[in-house]
C-alpha cells in the first residue's frame, strides 16, 4: 500500500470518529445547560475544551454563549475540528483513498457529507439540535457499519482502525482531563446533586451511561467511573480498550521487515502501563498528571506511526 | 442548414422508426412517463452518491458538478458498428505508425506528404522523443476518437484524442446505471457489453511492460490529484483495475527505476498510466515548475525502465493542424484508402484557405489548433455579427493558430424532456486499447449530447450531457 494511502485512511477514520465525538460532546453540553441551576454559560467553556477547540474559539469570539459555542463546534469553517470541517476532511481523505475503500464505504462517507452539508448549511436552532445530532451519529454509525461489513481484513483495515482508536483514546482522555477534579476522591464526600449531574455528564459524553449502570447498578462513584473509562477492557471507549486495539492492529501490520516496530514499542508501553496499574495507583500518581502523560504518549504514537509507515516521506 | 435535413438516429429523416430502435421504442411506448421521470431523478441521485462528478476549474465553492445523464440510449446496429470499427482501427494503426516514423526517420516528410514545418514548428512535437524506442512499439495505449454522424452509416472523425482521452468512466457508469434502472430493457435487447473495459485496460497496459519478466507487471495510474477535474475517473479506473493511484510526490527514481513509496518502502512500477500532461511529467526534462510529475522519469523511460502510457509526444498526431493531413497519413502507412472520413478542413496557415475562411466566417466553425474543451472557437451560423468581427481580428492576427471546417448537419438522438422525446445533437467517442497483442475497441463508447435545443456544443464543461451507447449484437 502507498504511504499516502495509509495516511489518508488513518485520517479519514480519525475525522469520522472526531465528528461523532464532537456530536456527543455537544449533546452532553446541551443536557447540562438544560438541567443546571445557575444561569451562566461557563459549562460551554469546558465542553469546548473537551473538544479541543476552546483556544480557537477564544481567538474568534470575545464572549461565551450557548449559541456561539454550539455553532463553533457544529459548523464553523474556521474551526478545523467542527463537525462540518471534520466530515469534509473525512470525505476529502476518502476521495484520496477511493481505491482502497469499498464502494459502500465511499458512498456512506459521501452521503454523510451531503446530508450534513445540507443540515448544517444554516445555523441550527435549539429546537432542531437533537435531530441534527442524531443525524450525525446515524451517519457515523453507517460508515462504521459498512466498514465493518464490507472491508477486507488487511493492512487497509488496520490503518483505518489505528486512526479510529487513536482519535477515540485521545477524546476519552481529554474528556476525563477536563473534568478530572469532579472525579477526585475529595469530591466524593460532597455528593450533592450537582456532582451527580457532572458524573453523569462524563458518562454520557462517551456513551457509557448504560454500560456503567449495567455494571454498577445505582451505585458507583467517581472512582468507579474513572476505572471504567480508563482501565475496563470491555468498555469500547476506555483507554485500555483503545490501547489494546492499537496494539492488535500494529501487530497485524508487522511483517518480516519488522514494519512499525517503533510504534509497537510505544503502544506496548502504553498498554502495559494501563494493565499494570489499579485505579488507586493512578489516583496516587495524580489523575490529571496521568491523563496529561497519556495524551502526550498518544500524540507521539501518532507521529511514530506516520514515520514508521512513510505517510509523508 | 434547414431543419428537415437533420438526420435523427431514432426517426431517420422521415419520421420512420429505424430498426435498431424498434425494441426500445416498443418498451418506451408502454412506459408511464411519470415513472420514467422518477427514474431520471433516481439516476441523478445515484450519480451524486457514487461521486461521479467533475470539478470545474476556477470555482472554489461550487466545486463538483454532475454531468447530466439522459435515460434514452443511443443505439447502433451491429453491422453499422462493425463497419465503423474497421475504420477506427485503421486510423489508430496509422497514428501509431506515424508517431514511430515522426520520432525516427521521418519518411512521410521525406516523401513530401506533410510540410516539414508542420512538425518542426509544432509545439506538440516532442524533441526528447526523437530516437526513443517505446516498449512494444506502442505510442498510444489508449485512444478516443471523436465522431459525428450525418446520416445512416455516415460518420466523420471530428478529432483524434491520442494524449490522455477522458470520459471512459461515464461510458461504464452510464451502462451500470441503465442496468440497475431498467434491467428489463437488457433482456429485450442484445446489447454488447462494455463492462470488461477495466480488465482489458489492465491487460493491455501489462502487455506493454518494458522487460517482460515472469512476474505480473506492476501498473499504476498517475493523477494530478483530487482537485483535477477528472480525478473521479482516475480513481475509478485505478479501483476497477485493482492498481495503485499515485501522485507525483508518491514517486521517485530509485536505482534506475520509477518507484512508489509504500508503507514498506519503495516499490518499482513497470507501467504508468499517466493522466498528467507531457509538460508536467518530469520537471527535470520538461516544465521545471511542475509539482505533478516525477523528476528523472524521462531518463528512466529512455533507458527502457518504465512504460509511460500514452507515450510523451503523441500530441503531434492529434494536433488540429495535423488533423487535416490524416487522410494522407492513413494512406501512407496502411497503403489503404481511409475507411473513415475526415471533416473537410481549411488550414488558416495557408493564404488561399485563410482568404476563403475570412470570406465565409458565418458558415464555418473555426477552432484553435491547440484548443480543447470547446473553448476559444467560433460557430459561425449561431454567432452574432459582433462575435464574428471580434473573431476575424483574432484570426488575422494569428492565422496559424486556427483551422476552419464547414458546419456539418449533425445527427440527433431524442432526449427525455418534459414534453417527451425531443431531438438533440450528439457526438460519439469510442475507446480503443492498443498493445503488441492488437487493437481492442469497446463496442459503443461515450455519447455526448447537447442539451440545449439546436446547440452543437456537447462538452460537459459547457452544459452537455451523456447517454448510454448501445451496440446491438448482429
Keywords:
heterodimer, A: 313 residues, mainly alpha, globular, B: 474 residues, alpha+beta, Dna Ligase, domain 1, 2 domains, five-stranded mixed β-sheet, 16 helices, 23 strands, 32% helix
Short description:
The complex is a heterodimer of chains A (313) and B (474). With 313 residues, chain A is mainly alpha-helical.
Structure commentary:
The complex is a heterodimer of chains A (313) and B (474). Chain A has helices at residues 3-35, 42-50, 54-60, 66-75, 83-96, 103-119, 129-150, 155-178, 180-183, 185-188, 193-205, 209-216, 222-230, 239-253, 261-275, 279-285, 287-308. In chain A, helix 1 (3-35) packs antiparallel against helix 4, helix 1 (3-35) packs parallel to helix 8 (155-178) and helix 1 (3-35) packs antiparallel against helix 11. With 313 residues, chain A is an all-alpha fold. Chain A is built from 17 helices and no strands. The two termini of chain A are 14 Å apart. Chain B is of the alpha+beta class. Chain B has 2 domains: 3-343 and 408-471, no CATH class; 344-407, 2-Layer Sandwich (Dna Ligase, domain 1). Chain B is built from 16 helices and 23 strands. Chain B has helices spanning 22-30, 33-50, 78-102, 107-110, 116-120, 168-181, 183-188, 197-206, 231-241, 278-281, 297-302, 315-318, 320-323, 326-334, 351-359, 385-397, and strands spanning 53-55, 64-66, 69-76, 142-151, 154-161, 219-222, 244-246, 251-254, 257-262, 265-268, 271-274, 307-309, 341-342, 346-347, 364-368, 378-379, 402-406, 412-417, 420-429, 431-435, 438-441, 446-450, 464-471. A 5-stranded mixed β-sheet of chain B has the order 3-23-22-19-18. Chain B has a 5-stranded mixed β-sheet with strand order 13-5-4-20-21. Chain B has a 4-stranded parallel β-sheet with strand order 7-6-11-12. The longest helix of chain B has 25 residues, at 78-102. At the A-B interface, helix 1, helix 5 and helix 6 of A face helix 2, helix 9, strand 7 and strand 9 of B.
Amino acid at each position: 500500500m502507498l504511504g499516502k494511502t495509509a495516511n489518508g485512511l488513518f485520517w479519514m477514520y480519525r475525522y469520522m470518529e472526531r465528528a461523532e465525538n464532537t456530536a456527543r460532546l455537544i449533546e452532553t453540553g446541551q443536557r447540562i445547560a438544560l438541567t443546571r441551576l445557575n444561569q451562566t454559560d461557563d459549562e460551554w467553556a469546558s465542553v469546548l475544551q473537551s473538544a479541543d477547540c476552546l483556544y480557537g474559539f477564544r481567538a474568534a469570539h470575545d464572549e461565551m454563549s450557548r449559541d456561539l459555542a454550539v455553532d463553533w463546534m457544529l459548523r464553523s469553517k474556521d474551526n478545523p475540528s467542527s463537525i462540518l470541517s471534520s466530515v469534509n476532511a473525512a470525505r476529502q481523505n476518502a476521495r484520496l483513498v477511493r481505491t482502497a475503500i469499498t464502494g459502500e464505504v465511499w458512498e456512506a462517507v459521501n452521503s454523510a457529507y451531503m446530508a450534513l452539508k445540507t443540515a448544517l448549511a444554516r445555523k441550527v436552532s435549539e429546537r432542531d439540535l437533537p435531530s441534527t445530532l442524531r443525524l450525525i451519529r446515524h451517519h457515523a454509525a453507517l460508515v462504521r457499519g459498512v466498514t465493518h461489513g464490507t472491508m477486507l481484513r488487511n493492512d487497509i483495515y488496520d490503518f483505518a482502525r489505528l486512526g479510529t482508536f487513536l482519535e477515540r483514546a485521545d477524546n476519552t482522555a481529554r474528556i476525563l482531563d477536563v473534568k478530572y477534579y469532579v472525579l477526585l476522591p475529595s469530591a466524593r464526600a460532597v455528593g450533592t446533586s450537582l456532582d451527580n449531574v457532572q458524573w453523569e455528564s462524563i458518562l454520557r459524553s462517551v456513551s457509557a451511561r448504560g454500560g456503567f449502570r449495567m455494571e454498577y447498578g445505582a451505585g458507583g462513584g467517581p472512582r468507579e467511573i474513572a476505572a471504567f473509562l480508563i482501565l475496563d477492557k470491555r468498555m469500547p471507549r476506555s483507554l485500555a480498550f483503545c490501547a489494546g486495539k492499537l496494539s492488535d492492529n500494529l501487530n497485524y501490520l508487522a511483517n518480516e521487515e519488522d514494519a512499525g516496530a517503533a510504534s509497537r514499542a510505544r503502544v506496548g508501553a502504553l498498554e502495559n502501563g494501563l494493565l499494570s496499574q489499579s485505579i488507586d495507583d493512578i489516583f496516587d500518581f495524580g489523575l490529571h498528571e496521568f491523563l496529561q502523560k497519556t495524551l502526550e504518549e498518544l500524540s507521539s504514537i501518532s507521529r511514530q506511526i506516520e514515520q514508521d509507515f512513510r505517510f509523508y516521506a | 442548414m434547414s431543419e428537415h435535413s437533420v438526420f435523427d438516429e431514432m426517426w431517420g429523416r422521415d419520421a420512420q422508426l429505424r430498426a435498431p430502435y424498434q425494441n426500445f421504442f416498443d418498451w418506451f411506448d408502454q412506459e408511464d412517463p411519470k415513472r420514467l421521470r422518477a427514474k431520471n431523478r433516481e439516476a441523478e441521485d445515484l450519480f451524486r452518491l457514487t461521486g461521479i462528478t467533475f470539478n470545474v476549474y476556477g470555482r472554489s465553492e461550487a466545486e463538483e458538478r454532475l454531468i447530466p445523464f439522459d435515460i434514452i440510449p443511443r443505439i447502433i446496429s451491429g453491422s453499422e458498428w462493425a463497419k465503423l470499427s474497421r475504420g477506427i482501427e485503421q486510423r489508430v494503426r496509422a497514428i501509431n505508425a506515424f508517431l514511430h516514423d515522426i520520432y525516427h526517420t521521418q519518411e512521410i516528410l521525406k516523401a513530401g506528404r506533410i510540410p516539414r514545418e508542420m512538425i518542426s514548428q509544432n509545439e506538440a512535437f516532442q524533441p526528447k522523443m526523437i530516437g526513443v524506442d517505446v516498449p512494444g512499439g506502442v505510442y498510444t495505449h489508449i485512444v478516443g476518437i471523436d465522431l459525428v454522424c450525418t446520416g445512416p452509416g455516415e460518420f466523420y472523425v471530428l478529432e483524434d484524442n491520442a494524449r490522455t482521452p477522458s470520459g471512459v468512466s461515464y461510458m461504464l457508469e452510464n451502462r451500470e446505471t441503465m442496468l440497475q434502472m431498467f434491467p428489463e430493457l437488457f433482456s429485450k435487447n442484445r446489447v454488447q457489453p462494455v463492462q470488461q473495459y477495466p480488465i482489458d485496460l489492465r491487460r493491455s497496459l501489462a502487455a506493454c511492460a518494458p522487460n517482460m519478466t515472469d512476474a505480473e507487471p506492476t501498473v499504476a495510474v498517475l493523477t494530478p490529484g483530487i482537485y483535477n477535474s477528472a480525478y473521479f475517473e482516475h480513481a475509478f479506473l485505478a479501483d476497477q483495475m485493482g492498481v495503485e493511484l499515485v501522485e507525483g510526490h508518491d514517486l521517485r527514481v530509485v536505482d534506475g527505476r520509477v518507484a512508489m513509496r509504500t508503507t514498506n518502502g519503495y516499490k518499482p512500477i513497470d507501467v504508468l498510466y499517466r493522466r498528467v500532461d507531457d509538460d508536467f511529467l518530469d520537471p527535470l526534462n520538461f516544465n521545471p515548475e511542475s509539482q505533478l510529475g516525477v523528476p528523472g522519469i524521462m531518463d528512466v523511460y529512455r533507458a527502457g525502465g518504465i512504460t509511460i502510457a500514452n507515450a510523451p509526444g503523441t500530441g503531434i498526431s492529434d494536433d488540429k493542424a495535423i488533423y487535416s493531413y490524416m487522410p494522407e497519413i492513413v494512406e501512407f502507412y496502411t497503403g489503404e484508402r481511409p475507411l473513415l472520413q475526415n471533416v473537410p478542413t481549411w488550414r488558416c496557415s495557408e493564404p488561399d484557405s485563410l482568404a476563403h475562411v475570412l470570406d465565409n466566417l458565418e458558415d464555418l466553425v473555426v477552432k484553435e489548433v491547440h484548443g480543447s474543451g470547446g473553448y476559444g472557437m467560433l460557430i459561425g451560423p449561431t454567432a452574432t455579427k459582433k462575435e464574428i468581427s471580434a473573431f476575424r481580428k483574432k484570426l488575422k492576427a494569428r492565422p496559424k493558430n486556427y483551422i476552419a471546417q464547414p458546419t456539418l448537419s449533425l445527427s440527433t438522438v431524442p432526449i427525455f424532456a418534459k414534453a417527451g422525446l425531443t431531438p438533440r445533437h450528439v457526438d460519439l467517442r469510442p475507446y480503443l486499447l492498443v498493445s503488441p497483442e492488437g487493437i481492442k475497441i469497446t463496442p459503443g463508447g461515450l455519447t455526448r449530447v447537447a442539451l440545449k435545443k439546436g446547440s452543437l456544443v456537447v462538452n460537459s464543461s459547457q452544459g452537455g450531457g451523456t447517454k448510454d451507447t448501445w451496440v446491438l449484437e448482429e
